[in-house]
Each structure stands twice: as C-alpha cells, then as structure tokens.
Amino acid sequence: MKKYTIWAIGMLLLISTLTSVSWVSVRKSQLEFFDSPADSTSAKIVVSYSNSQLFDQYIDSSYEEANLAGSGLDSAVYRKALVGYYNLKKTNLVSPERQIITIIDFNRKSSQKRLWIVDLEGNKLLFNTLVAHGQGSGGDMATNFSNLENSHQSSLGFYITSETYFGKHGYSMKLEGMDKGFNTNARDRAVVVHGAEYVSQSFIDKTGRLGRSHGCPALPVELTNTIINTIKGQTCLFINGPATKYTSNYLDQEIAVTNFLTSGNNLQASL
Predict the structure, then answer these.
(1) Rounded CA gap, 269 and 265, in Å?
(2) Which of 38, 122, 138, 175 is deepest in the core (most CB within 10 A)?
C-alpha cells in the first residue's frame, strides 16, 4: 500500500507541475500580445471597420424595431435617408432636439402609402400615409423631376422643414431644398407641405390614382395639421425617386458615421 501511495503522490505532483508550466506559457504569450506595439495602419483599419459596422447595425436595428419593412419602406431607401440625416447634422441645420425624419419614396405608386415619418430617438413609425406628386412628374407614377419654376414637377433630395403659415390650402409649411441643382428652388417655386382633398382613398377609388399638385408633397387633409406640427422646426425630409442622375453631397458615408458616433443617444441605444 505504501508503494502505491508514494506512486500516486508522485503522479499528482507531476500533473500539478505540468499544469502550472502550461498556464504560465499561455499567460506569457497573452501578455506579450497585449504589450507588443500594434501596427498603426492596421489599427486604423480595424477602428474604421468597427465604426462603420456599428452604424450599419444601428440602421438595421432601427429599421427592424420600427417595423418599417411591414409598412413597405425599402431598407435601401431608409439607409440613404439616414446617411443624409447624419450628414445634415454636421451643418447644424437640423434640430438636435427633434430626432425625426420624413421619407417620401416616389418609386411607389400614388395609390400606395409612400410617406413615412420616423421617430429616430424611439425607433417608432409615427405616420405612414398617402402623398401626392407634381402634375408634371407623371400620372400614378412620378417619373420626371425638376428644380425649375413652372415645371409643376416634384423635386428629389433632402429638405429642411421651415416656417408654417396659413395660405390658400390652409395650414401649410415651407421647405428649404438642400441639394443644389435638384431642389434648391423649392422656396421660390412655393413647393410646400399642405393638405389637399385629392389626396384620399376616395379619390383613388374614383380615378385609380391620387390627384396631383404643382410640385408640392400634398397630404390628406385630415392629417395635415398633425403631421406639420410633428415635423416642423428644422427636421429632415427626404424625397427619393427613380432618377439615376440624382446625386447629393449629403450621401457621404464617412461623415454620416462620424456624426452618428458623436450622437450620444443613438450610439448608446446601439450598444
């Protein structure tokens, strides 16, 4: 028995020694890895990739949480709108307190709900409704767009909501076009948000499409006051459409990522 006991003790000591040596080796290699100077170029690439991924993650989670797919908003259009929104934040033209974005997608028929208003702070869809395009842009589908006066066409691009007033269409709101060559004549052309009787399901039932404006994004009368009060005061409005020639300085992904990272609320919500 004594011989077996001595043998067992010896084996235990051997195993203990080997385990200690193995742990020390692993720990040493870990310390050497973290203590060694990182290649600065590689580090920049990793950080940049991580920031971009964080932004992508935020857009995807926001899109999903607000159930925008269920409402028919294309994810690519939503992404484009948010890139523009975060670019505009750098200009201080959009209100930092009111994190709301309005998106109109003229890739959809006028008989479809193609306006979305999203609360970005709470990731909530506030409105999804009908909206008219200009007479010169087309029938049920808007296919032509212009920045020219008297064209009666809609204009693509990013806008900032401006002052409200009472005009011939009742309670209305002016818009500031931000994309040079595409919508910067909006104020001179009196392209405003207003209500119209021809923006209704009953009009669609009679004609197969909505009525058309002189280029204004006209809304259902019963929602006009509420929507204007929701988006007034320097919020971002984006009009998307089937135009391959549209370009914008506000679609810079790098600027969008940088501004997103400095936006505490959204960054915190993404982590």
Answers:
(1) 6
(2) 175
Residue 42 confidence (pLDDT)? 43
Sheet holding 115-119, edge to edge: 124-129, 115-119, 100-105, 236-240, 157-167, 170-177, 192-193
pLDDT averaged over 10-residue windows placed end to end, the chain, 271 residues: 44 44 38 42 50 94 97 98 95 90 98 98 97 97 96 98 96 98 97 98 97 98 98 97 91 94 61 50
Task: Using alpha carbons, select from 170, 223, 208 the residue that is nearest to residue 192.
Answer: 170
What is the token pair recorded at 55? 């932004």
For residue 117, report the phi and psi dihedrals to the nearest 5 degrees. -120, 120
Can you read off the two tokens belonging to residue 209? 């499409």
**Vertex 135 angle, CA 109 and 72, to 5°:** 20
Tokens at residue 54, please? 């964080």
